[in-house]
Amino acid sequence: MNTKRPTSMPPEQASPEADKPDDYLPPRRTVHQPEKEKWLKYFYRTLLWLFIFLVVGLLVWGWKLLRG
Hints:
Layout: H1 11-14, H2 28-31, H3 35-67
């Protein structure tokens, strides 16, 4: 008596896209990135550069005070 089940899945269950209808559209968020997320990258990059300039400025200012 052979009671083993097949280990491979039928082709219709193997792909999750097979369950989607033909007129399926992906979520809008994946197609069109929100404007907020676009500006967030520039905001963080600007903050990083301002911090770098602040540290360099303070180091130069401190160096001038020590020498003078």
